[in-house]
Amino acid sequence: MRIAVDLHSHSGYAGGVGQIELSQVSHSMKLKGIDIFGTGDCLFPPRTQELQQQLQPCEEGCFALPGDSSRFILQTEVIFSTKISGYKNKIIAHHIILFPNFSAVHKMQNLLTKWGMKNTIGRPFITSDSVKKLQTQLEDIAAIDPLVEIIPAHVMTPDGILGSKNNLLTMQQFYRDFLPNIRIIETGLSADPKMLETIPDLAELTFISNSDCHSAALNRIGREFTVVEANEINYKSLIEALRANKIVFTAEFNPSEGRYFQTGHRANRKGHDGENYLPEIHTSKCPICGKKIIPGVQERCYSLQGNCIIPRHRNYRHLIPLVEVIAHSVGVKSVKSKKVIGIFNKLLQVYSSELELWCSKTIKGDLSGLVPPTTISQIMAVQKGNFRFEPPGYDGLYGKLQIFS
Ligand SMILES: [Zn+2]
Ligand SMILES: [Zn+2]
Description:
15 strands; alpha/beta; TIM Barrel; nine-stranded mixed β-sheet
């Protein structure tokens, strides 16, 4: 059966946002069509307690609010950091960890205590003096339960394992002998399978996409997601399907929307006097301000690509959250405006979920009279992939959406 999953999120404890109610999350999941959602921050003790109090166990390893159909699995993000010889700065890499039950979560909390790591925020740090120590720690985590899964998160962002800040040449430098236990990676909002498929280190791995959201809003939950073919709905079947690369498709941001897609310096930087700089070839120093230029995600991907990789075919599609398409079509800035939500609700009377709308090749039934014609034509354009971000994102600026309807 096909299951839509979004396995990377954060709670209010990860900072920057207020508390997010699980009931709100569940409501948004249903509208979006997400079946299983990663709880976020499950290691942080107040969050663990909250999850234990509010969620009830259902299918093995899955949890739900009483009487509710949305499923949750226990998930956290952890930041590993270590010293690698030859690298001046510490290597920092974000990871998603999935747990089959609360007992495994408690065992992981005990490991954090044993290692003297603070567990006082939603997304804890695990620091190691050496890669050798890191390898032992990763092995200890994997030994908690054979179904614990450690997944490098948003691999190409500056805080991802292969990002330009770390500047690693191979994942082996970081994982050493633990490498065979890495079976799945998260592409992140800034890269898509096309960009990653010819990187030798990733060629054989499963690619998944998640929202990494810090909110229950409709433009956040499921803004990226994965549809997987699993035998049944439970944690074990899900993990086995992911490990076996049974991905039906991933829904991705168009990477050119990302704030660090292209290499360059924006016009309002100090010393730039309103002039931007977008080099066509690799440049390490900006000729305008004289400062270092960090390679964008696209350039970083090119630099890691191998010559003789035959890409494994991966199904994916670029999508934009429906509320953003609606807002764009009616010329409204806020995706939370009454007008946008009104149109969204009308569409969701016709479609069972946003996922169903995007999976349809055409517009279902007669929507004219229900929603504005420009909204219909822009939805159809997005269904066909007729949109891009021009100019693309660079140096902290998002790409600008253009829909060709
Ligand atoms: Zn992260
Ligand atoms: Zn500059």
